[in-house]
Specification:
The complex is a heterodimer of chains A (about 750) and B (about 210).
Chain A lengths: L2 H9 L17 H4 L1 H10 L24 E6 L2 E6 L4 H7 L23 E4 L6 E2 L10 E3 L3 H16 L15 H9 L22 E3 L9 H10 L5 E3 L6 E3 L13 H5 L5 E3 L12 E6 L8 E7 L2 E7 L12 H5 L13 E3 L5 E3 L2 H14 L5 E5 L5 H13 L5 E3 L28 E5 L3 H4 L1 H14 L2 E5 L10 E4 L2 H8 L4 H8 L3 E6 L8 H14 L3 E2 L2 E2 L1 E4 L5 H6 L15 E5 L14 E6 L11 E4 L8 E4 L4 E5 L12 H11 L9 H11 L8 E2 L33 H5 L1 H10 L3
Parallel strand pairs in A: 1-5, 15-16, 15-24, 17-18, 17-20, 18-19, 20-23, 24-25, 25-26
Antiparallel strand pairs in A: 1-2, 3-4, 3-5, 6-9, 7-8, 10-11, 11-12, 13-14, 13-26, 21-22, 27-28, 28-29
Helix pairs in contact in A: 10-18, 11-18, 11-19, 14-16
Chain B lengths: L1 H26 L1 H6 L2 H30 L6 H10 L3 E5 L5 E4 L10 E4 L13 H7 L12 H4 L5 H5 L43 H4 L1
Antiparallel strand pairs in B: 1-2, 2-3
The chains are: A alpha/beta (about 750), B mainly alpha (about 210).
Pfam family, one (chain A): NADH_dhqG_C
Organism (chain A): Acer yangbiense
GO cellular component, one term (chain A): mitochondrial inner membrane
């Protein structure tokens, strides 16, 4: 007899309490048959369970306390509002029900049958996603009946699913893979041939391996309900069922990348990411997108110094859980055309790589040679608030105040914050019932805002009127006119749409930031304010007057007061500091002007530059960005900077010292405390700061309306800034998806 | 190559014929003396001349063979060792492999005479002969393996996978800076892998 055995025999009598813990797992014949075990479960007394935490922080919001009903999930009582499904009740009770077709943001299909649960007094297991919870319902989620039902469903699903997990891009983050670990059989009974399906071409972004599809129809519902395009559908019945586009057609939606995320299997995967990396190799960094003014919350997945992919992050107030294709697939632009060394243009017109010391010395010397009022600074559309603050401070210390951010026009109105932000807030748009879009095409300017409008149109039957050039909308929209004259008609009450606004409960007017570039912008804004006043758009409980900005830097630039002193400063400029500004019109600039381009991409701005200073892109720096609704958010560095590049504000800080006008901050904390004195809302991270004063404080304007139609601000949705213009994927998209 | 062999064969045959004739001459000398004396003396003269020539030739060969041995005792020992040993094979670099089973200490019965006479080292033995030389296998580098012979595959040499098996290269350490081995990531490796994951902007392109 071994010593161990002896010892265990000696210990056992003293340790009788631990017998429960050491109990082996056995399967008894009575547990195999569902009926008898259910009877056994009935007989046992209700266990006193500790309260559980809801799945994924699910919250219960009772609009009316009388509507609360009580159901029992595995014997644990839980209070839920009326109209919730059994699955939602289980989530509140802290039980995660396996599912494939159910998605909380899409309509209920109930076709995968994976969420079967047992309900007392129900003859069959019920699909919990489609069954409304009734008062006093006794739901059992872990009984042998439920388990056996799910195992059966899983076996049928795996029948026609290929066993190619090792070569599948979804491997490691696949719902089917995960759930088959719990409900899959260890052996197959299927001996026939597996079904195979022809792959569909959905364009340059979404890769399809349709044999892997389990027909959950999430992508079909997403396309029609969220993206608002009727591109996808189901063809055939039974084993011949296929997801497809009926006829060979690309998916022409600016949100098409989201079907990759919602697909529970590897049928729809990312084409640019195909076979590039495995998801467990990647490091995720939670940051902010800067390709438009929405500031979608994203997670940058990187491997080493390389951004491998971009995924959305849940933020109910901004992007829910979707992101636009530009946000998702612009990342390959971060690896191309990068500026990695300071360069100076020599006498022969060629760029020569120099050290930072030489580059800064030359810039400082030239800056001192010109008159202070001939110095101009322009911030780019991707600049963070810290750098813009440093740029403004530096130029002010040099004696100039000609500093602005591109896209805000020459005479931006930065006095009233309500005049340039989205006062309703993005999530507030869901309460609206009438929209008036003035010179804005939200589908290309801010795809996530457009998705929100689409959601509202779908849910509330909201009416949408649009003034501007002919364009596509993915929801019902009334095209009222093309120019400010239509706006004037509405303001004077002559247009039929005026009655729609005045009769609406929560009307919303959205003015595009393209209007900022017009000469008569003050007149247009005063007409819009007249409509708002007459239509009761701005009330104490509702502010429906919005401006939709285009660029990530705009709101912060206006908050920080980046307003040029004179509107024609560029014509007399001798020293121009471009901080990533590529789209600014430099035609009127004198030929002898000295241009410093500080940026991360060799884009339009470098071609006239005399000195190039490399900077870091948004994925490489920590910076504050304010989105169009006035919510400040911060990016975090996901990957190291390239070459010799430095953060924008650090370069300006170093330059100020070389130029002899040292800025008083050395750290990000220092620069933020400087920002606090200018725009304290930029430090309220992840919080929307509404505008304090309304439009009523605005002085009267004596401008005349120009009847010229509103121009479209974004020519190509896929290529709007230096990063997206450098991206190959975006070039493919604009070649294949925008071709008419 | 063939022509050379042919020449060699012809020469061999010629020499054999001569030797036979010589032997015949010695054996049947008595009869010949009885015959034409003059003819006989001429024959002897020719024989002596031929013998001298042969001796010079041998001398030459001896010098050529053993000249290298004068500064290199190691080579001399190998050469002496070779006497009476069996030449098992010659590899593609010209290294000769010898074996002597009797009258040798077991474990020292296989050796190589390097083709390179001045700077030889063990890394000059190619992989296919290494096994034979180090008593790992009894199959020589150019021999057909008895198992594979059945499939008419001529063995170790052929076994080397064509697709990724690279040509044998001797170790050139100490032969100069250009031969120093640098790993793939080493700065001095000329084919060093570029680990930067971005494309820099090229200013010349813009012009």
């Amino acid at each position: 007899m071994g010593l161990g055995l002896l010892a265990s025999r000696a210990i056992r009598p003293f340790n009788s309490g631990s017998r429960f813990l050491l109990r082996t797992i056995v399967s008894k014949p009575e547990l195999q048959s569902p009926e008898s075990s259910a009877a056994a479960a009935d007989a046992s007394p209700e266990p006193d369970l500790p309260p559980r935490t809801p799945v994924g922080g699910a919250r219960v919001h009772f609009t009316n306390p009388e509507d609360a009903i009580e159901v029992f999930v595995d014997g644990y009582p839980v209070k839920i509002p009326k109209g919730m499904t059994v699955l939602q009740a289980c989530e509140v009770a802290g039980v995660d029900i396996p599912r494939f077709c159910y998605h909380s943001r899409l309509s209920i299909a109930g076709n995968c049958r994976m969420c079967l649960v047992e309900v007392e007094k129900s003859p069959k297991p019920v699909a919990s996603c489609a069954m409304p919870a009734l008062p006093g319902m006794k739901i059992k989620t872990d009984t042998p009946v439920a388990k056996k039902a799910r195992e059966g469903v899983m076996e049928f699903l795996l029948m026609n699913h290929p066993l190619d997990c090792p070569i599948c891009d979804q491997g490691g983050e696949c719902d089917l893979q995960d759930q088959s670990m719990a409900f899959g059989s260890d052996r197959g009974r299927f001996t026939e041939m597996k079904r195979s399906v022809v792959d569909k071409n959905l364009g340059p972004l979404v890769k399809t391996v349709m044999t892997r599809c389990i027909q959950c129809t999430r992508c079909v519902r997403f396309a029609s309900e969220v993206a608002g395009v009727q591109d996808l559908g189901i063809l055939g019945r039974g084993s011949g069922e296929e997801i497809g586009t009926y006829v060979e057609k690309l998916m022409t939606s600016e949100l098409s990348g989201n079907v990759i995320d919602i697909c529970p299997v590897g049928a729809l995967t990312s084409k640019p990411f195909a076979f590039k990396a495995r998801n467990w190799e990647l490091k995720g960094t939670e940051t902010i997108d800067v390709t438009d003014a929405v500031g979608s919350n994203i997670r940058i997945d990187s491997r080493g110094p390389e951004v491998m992919r971009i995924l959305p992050r849940l933020n109910e107030d901004i992007n829910e859980e979707w992101i636009s294709d530009k946000t998702r697939f612009c990342y390959d632009g971060l690896k191309r055309q990068r500026l990695n060394d300071p360069m100076i243009r020599g006498a022969d017109g060629r760029f020569k790589v120099v050290s930072w010391r030489d580059a800064l010395a030359i810039v400082a010397e030239v800056a001192h040679q010109v008159k202070p009022e001939e110095i101009v600074g322009i911030a780019g559309k991707l600049s963070d608030a810290e750098s813009m603050m440093a740029l403004k401070d530096f130029l002010n210390r040099m004696g100039s105040n000609n500093v602005w951010c591109e896209g805000t026009g020459t005479q931006p109105n930065a006095d009233l914050r309500s005049g340039y932000i989205m006062n309703t807030s993005i999530s507030g748009l869901e309460k609206a019932d009438v929209f008036l879009l003035v010179g804005t095409q939200p589908r290309v300017e801010a795809a996530m805002v457009n998705a929100r409008i689409n959601k509202t149109v779908r849910a509330n039957n909201a009416k949408v009127g649009y003034i501007g050039l002919e364009t596509d909308f993915n929801y019902d929209c009334q095209h009222l006119g093309t120019g400010p004259n239509t706006l004037k008609e509405i303001a004077e009450g002559r247009h039929p749409f005026f009655s729609a606004i005045s009769n609406a409960k929560n009307p919303v007017i959205i003015v595009g930031a393209g209007v900022f570039e017009r000469e008569d912008k003050d007149a247009i804004f005063s007409v819009v304010e007249t409509i708002a006043k007459k239509g009761n758009v701005v009330r104490p409980d509702w502010n429906g007057l919005n401006v939709l900005l285009h660029n990530a830097a705009q709101a912060a630039a206006l908050d920080l007061g980046l307003v040029p002193e004179s509107s024609n400063s560029i014509e007399s400029a001798k020293f121009v500091y471009l901080m990533g500004a590529d789209d600014v019109n430099l035609d009127k600039l004198p030929d002898d002007a000295f241009i410093v381009y500080q940026g991360h991409h060799g884009d339009r701005g470098v071609y006239r530059a005399n000195v190039i200073l490399p900077a870091s892109a948004f994925s490489e720096k920590e910076g504050t960005y304010e989105n169009t609704e006035g919510c400040a958010q911060q990016t975090l560095p996901a990957v190291p900077t390239v070459g010799d590049a430095r953060d924008d504000w650090k370069t300006i800080r170093a330059l100020s010292e070389v130029a002899g006008v040292r800025l008083p901050y050395d750290t990000l904390g220092g620069i933020r405390s400087r920002m606090r004195t200018v725009a304290p809302n930029l430090l309220q991270v992840d919080e929307r700061e509404p505008a304090t004063f309304g439009h009523s404080l605005k002085p009267e304007v004596a401008q005349k309306l120009n009847p010229a139609p509103f121009k479209s601000a974004v020519e190509n949705f896929y290529m709007t800034d230096a990063i997206t213009r450098a991206s190959k994927i975006m070039a493919q998209c604009s070649a294949s998806l925008l071709k008419k | 190559m063939k022509k050379k062999k042919k020449n060699y064969k012809e020469e061999k045959q010629r020499r054999e014929r001569e030797r036979e004739r010589e032997r015949d001459g010695v054996d049947s000398g008595e009869e010949r003396i009885e015959g034409d004396q003059r003819e006989r003396s001429g024959y002897l003269l020719a024989r002596a001349q031929r013998r001298r020539l042969l001796l010079t030739h041998c001398n030459y060969v001896f010098i050529m063979f053993f000249r290298r041995c004068l500064p290199d005792g190691n080579l001399l020992q190998t050469k002496l060792h070779n006497i009476g040993a069996k030449l098992v094979g010659v590899d593609k670099f010209g290294n000769k492999y010898y074996e002597k089973l009797g009258n040798t200490q077991y474990g020292r019965h296989r050796w190589v005479e390097y083709a390179e006479k001045s700077r030889y080292n063990a890394s000059q033995v190619p992989a296919e002969w290494h096994g034979w030389l180090h008593f790992i296998t009894d199959h020589t580098g150019d021999e057909a393996s008895p198992i594979l012979k059945y499939y008419l595959i001529s063995c170790l040499l052929m076994l080397k996978p064509k697709r990724y098996g690279i040509e044998h290269k001797e170790n050139l350490s100490g032969e100069g800076d250009e031969y120093i081995y640098h790993s793939k990531g080493h700065t001095l490796n000329p084919g060093q892998r570029d680990w930067s994951r971005y494309q820099p902007w090229q200013p010349t392109k813009a012009e």
